Amino acid sequence: MSDWRDPWDGGREGSRNDGRIDGCDGFDGDAGAWSTPAPEPGASLPPFRRSFSLQRTRFAVGLPDASTATVDVDHLSGRASLYRDDRHVRTSDMPVRFPLGSEAIAVAASRYGMRRIHLIGADGSERRLDPAPGTPEHWRAQLSRRHPGVGRTLAACAVIVLTVDLILVAPQLLELVTHLRFWADRCSPFVSPVDLPVWANTALAINAGLAGIERALTFRHHRLLDAETDGIGS
Question: Are 44 and 87 in contact (CB under 8 A)?
C-alpha cells in the first residue's frame, strides 16, 4: 500500500498534459456516453459528465502494481462497474466486493449516496477510494478543504436535522404501525404524543433527505441516525 499514488494526477502512461483528467474529461460528450446495459468486457471507460452527477458517481485508486482501479456507480440501477486502467472488468449489483488479486474493493450504497467504497488490502487495512473530479463527493471534499468552517457547520446541521426527524417522526410511524390490523389484534395500539400536520411532516422529510445527502457525500453513517438512508444493502 506504500506505493499508492494519486489516480487523478495524470501520472500514468497515456495521460494527457492539457489539464484534463484521463477518463474524466469530455463533460460535453454524447448523451449516450452512459449506457444502461452493462459495458462489454474490455470496453473503454466513458467520460464522466456533470449532467449525470445526480444519478452516477465515480471513484479511483492507484494500486501497488502501478495500475489504476476505477469504480463507476450507477445509483439508478444499483450497480457498480469496475475498470482497470480504463478498461471494463466487471459489473455487479451493490453491495459487491471486487477481487483484485490479494486485495479487493468493497462497494455499498445507501438511498442518498455511497456508504462504502474502500480498497481492502491483503493485511485487512482499508483505504477509501478518491472521488473523481466533477462528482458530488469531490465537490463536497473540496468545500471542506477550502472552507473547513462551512463543512463542519453543514455536518452539524445534518446531525441536528436527522435527530429532530427521528424524535418527531418515529412516534407517528409507531402509531401508524400499531393501528394496522395485524398488530391491533395482538396488542393495544400506541398513541403518539406527536401529531404534526401534513405540511410539517413533508418539510421534515425534505430536510431529512437533504441531511442524508450531506452525510452520504461525507461518508458518515450511524445505524440509528441514518436509518432512513439505508435503501440499498450494506
Answer: yes
pTM across the whole model: 0.68
* Structure confidence by residue, pLDDT tens digits, 200-225: 889 988 998 898 889 888 888 777 77
- How far is residue 50's CA from residue 54's CA, in Å, rounded to a whole number? 8
Say how many C-beta atoms besides its own lie within 10 A of residue 199's C-beta.
Answer: 8
Q: How far apart are the first and last CA of the chain?
A: 25
Gap between the Cα atoms of 33 and 38, Å rounded: 12
pLDDT tens digits for range 30-65: 333 444 577 888 888 888 887 777 788 999 998 888
CA gap 104, 96 in Å, rounded: 10
**How many CA within 13 A on the CB side of residue 55?**
8
Are 131 and 138 contacting, i.e. CB atoms less than 8 angstroms apart?
A: yes
How many whole angstroms separate alpha carbon 163 and alpha carbon 171? 13
Bridge partners of 44, per DSSP, are 87
